[in-house]
Design brief:
- The structure is a single chain.
- By secondary structure, the protein is an alpha+beta fold.
- It contains 2 helices and 6 strands, in the order ββββαββα.
- 15% of the residues lie in helices and 41% in strands.
- It has a 6-stranded antiparallel β-sheet with strand order 2-3-1-4-6-5.
- β5 and β6 form a beta hairpin.
């Protein structure tokens, strides 16, 4: 199983449900929550004073009948008490970590 680093750096923002979402190229993911939207987007040079995230993913497509793969990948991070944010898409799971953790 190969892991690949997603190019770029990301920031995560919460925005009001009444706000307009800019569907520009820097947008990575929108999560529609009960009371707000969570936006994951590429960090722009002008972004400051916010947590920076890096993302990686499994570079294979697995059948829906397979389970436990993500758990096995995340186990070493859990054992080191490293928090992650997982975003699941149709064919791929993205694991986001605070950039500072990756530099250790």
């Amino acid at each position: 199983m190969k892991l690949k680093i997603q190019s770029g750096e990301f920031i995560i923002e919460k925005i009001d449900k009444n706000a307009t979402i800019n569907l520009s190229d820097d947008l990575f993911c929108v999560v529609n929550e009960f009371d707000c939207y969570t936006i994951i987007k590429n960090k722009l040079k002008s972004s400051c004073n916010t947590q920076i995230f890096k993302a990686f993913y499994i570079d294979e497509i697995f059948d829906f009948s397979q389970s436990g793969i993500l758990f096995e990948i995340l186990r070493p991070l859990k054992e080191e008490c490293i928090s992650v944010l997982v975003v699941s898409a149709y064919e791929r799971d993205y694991i986001l970590l605070i950039k500072m953790i990756l530099i250790k």
